[in-house]
């Protein structure tokens, strides 16, 4: 990157914009480095095979960078509400619109973003990125549990097997952190040592790694989230003991895999939420997995240093957007502030970075906006 451009960024007054620009440039550099590494690999293979001319033609020049113009176009073409009634009975979730037709469900992952359980706006490319991240993890965990994915007709769309959802959200936590009422740190700090049936040691500090990951299920179909122990879930008739234990085993194995693969990318999988369903007696992983909507990720490189000094961890999720909302007085009640283009771009950039780091694939923006592309893919 030319030095005068760096100087121009350094001179930008608004911190939010400056940060977004720096992140964008880092992303481009990382992409260039990734491509260079791929070329070095290709060169090694060429040398091995002494097949220089043939292979040189096949070296991938990489995807075009995401330009400012393309981002600007997407700001006006995000995927918000969908209506494809011909695909089945419509269900609207916070982020996904589903269309159920017998044993097949078409899930459209929109660009909607929810914070504090409220819809706050759309983020360019978010749906496509969430699906790309989940696709990576479905693939990387298929040996642990089968998942619902059947086919991917569009980057924002999945066809999945319709399952009977198990009425629990399986939250697995590796660290003592969080700021909401159901979060581990808030309860621990208030003196609670039994979190959903898990006995925690004395003396934990904020953001400390737990001796071992714990499962803190919440109920899926109640308005207010509440932490449940294994005994509560069974006593309330939500699951049998046998089913609970099978689910717990799957979740801990998924979390171990997530932790291991994230570590290879220099990331910490802090906590996450799994949804499981049943097809007959078979447990199936449904909804999404290890996306920034369902999970918290931190950068590993400075974890120790920040933990020791008691500073915030650097997170690669939507936390900065939550902070932006809080700075404007929004905590989930009243009207949400209208997202500015700058914060939408900054948030999109974080999602793109995370996807590229995890999947090791450069992000590709299609010619059409998400709204136009999905309409084309799904209209009858
Ligand atoms: N294979 C499946 N079979 C049945 N239901 C599914 C399947 N996959 C996902 N679902 C359900 O589809 C809905 C997807 O919508 P979305 O992810 O927006 O959920 P939500 O419940 O509103 O929010 P959140 O996931 O953030 O709690 C969820 O209710 C999820 O349980
Ligand atoms: Mg969901």
UniProtKB/TrEMBL annotation:
<keyword id="KW-0547">Nucleotide-binding</keyword>
<dbReference type="GO" id="GO:0005524">
    <property type="term" value="F:ATP binding"/>
</dbReference>
<dbReference type="Pfam" id="PF01259">
    <property type="entry name" value="SAICAR_synt"/>
</dbReference>
<keyword id="KW-0067">ATP-binding</keyword>
<protein>
    <recommendedName>
        <fullName>Phosphoribosylaminoimidazole-succinocarboxamide synthase</fullName>
        <ecNumber>6.3.2.6</ecNumber>
    </recommendedName>
</protein>
<dbReference type="GO" id="GO:0006189">
    <property type="term" value="P:'de novo' IMP biosynthetic process"/>
</dbReference>
<feature type="domain" description="SAICAR synthetase/ADE2 N-terminal">
    <location>
        <begin position="91"/>
        <end position="327"/>
    </location>
</feature>
<keyword id="KW-0658">Purine biosynthesis</keyword>
<dbReference type="InterPro" id="IPR028923">
    <property type="entry name" value="SAICAR_synt/ADE2_N"/>
</dbReference>
<dbReference type="GO" id="GO:0004639">
    <property type="term" value="F:phosphoribosylaminoimidazolesuccinocarboxamide synthase activity"/>
</dbReference>
<keyword id="KW-0436">Ligase</keyword>
<comment type="pathway">
    <text>Purine metabolism; IMP biosynthesis via de novo pathway; 5-amino-1-(5-phospho-D-ribosyl)imidazole-4-carboxamide from 5-amino-1-(5-phospho-D-ribosyl)imidazole-4-carboxylate: step 1/2.</text>
</comment>
<comment type="similarity">
    <text>Belongs to the SAICAR synthetase family.</text>
</comment>
<dbReference type="GO" id="GO:0005737">
    <property type="term" value="C:cytoplasm"/>
</dbReference>
């Amino acid at each position: 990157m030319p030095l005068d451009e760096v100087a121009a960024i350094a001179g930008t007054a608004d911190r939010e914009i400056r940060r977004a620009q720096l992140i964008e440039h880092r992303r481009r550099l990382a992409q260039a480095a990734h491509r260079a590494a791929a070329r070095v690999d290709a060169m090694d293979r060429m040398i091995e095979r002494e097949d220089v001319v043939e292979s040189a033609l096949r070296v991938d020049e990489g995807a075009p960078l995401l330009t400012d113009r393309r981002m600007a176009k997407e700001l006006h073409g995000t995927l918000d509400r969908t209506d494809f009634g011909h695909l089945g009975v419509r269900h609207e979730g916070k982020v996904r619109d589903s269309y159920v037709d017998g044993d097949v469900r078409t899930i459209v992952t929109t660009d909607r973003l929810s914070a504090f359980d409220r819809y706050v706006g759309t983020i360019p490319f978010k749906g496509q990125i969430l699906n790309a991240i989940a696709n990576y993890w479905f693939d990387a965990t298929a040996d642990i549990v089968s998942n619902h994915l059947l086919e991917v007709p569009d980057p924002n769309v999945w066809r999945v097997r319709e399952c009977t959802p198990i009425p629990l959200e399986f939250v697995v936590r590796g660290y003592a952190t969080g700021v909401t009422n159901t979060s581990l740190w808030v309860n621990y700090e208030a003196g609670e040592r039994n979190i959903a049936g898990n006995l925690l040691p004395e003396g934990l500090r904020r953001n400390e790694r737990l001796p071992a990951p714990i499962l803190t299920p919440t109920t899926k179909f109640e308005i207010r989230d509440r932490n449940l122990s294994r005994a509560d879930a069974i006593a309330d008739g939500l699951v049998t003991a046998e089913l609970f234990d099978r689910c717990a085993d799957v979740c801990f194995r998924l979390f171990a895999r997530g932790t291991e693969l994230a570590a290879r990318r220099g990331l910490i999988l802090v906590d996450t939420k799994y949804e499981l369903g049943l097809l007959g007696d078979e447990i199936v992983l449904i909804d999404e997995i290890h996306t920034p909507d369902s999970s918290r990720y931190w950068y590993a490189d400075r974890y120790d240093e920040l933990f020791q000094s008691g500073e915030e961890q650097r997170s690669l999720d939507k936390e900065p957007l939550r902070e932006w909302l809080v700075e404007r007085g929004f905590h989930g009640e009243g009207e949400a502030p209208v997202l500015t283009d700058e914060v939408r771009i900054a948030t999109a950039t974080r999602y793109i970075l995370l996807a590229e780091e995890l999947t090791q694939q450069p992000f590709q923006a299609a010619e059409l906006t998400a709204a136009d592309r999905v309409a084309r893919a799904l209209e009858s």
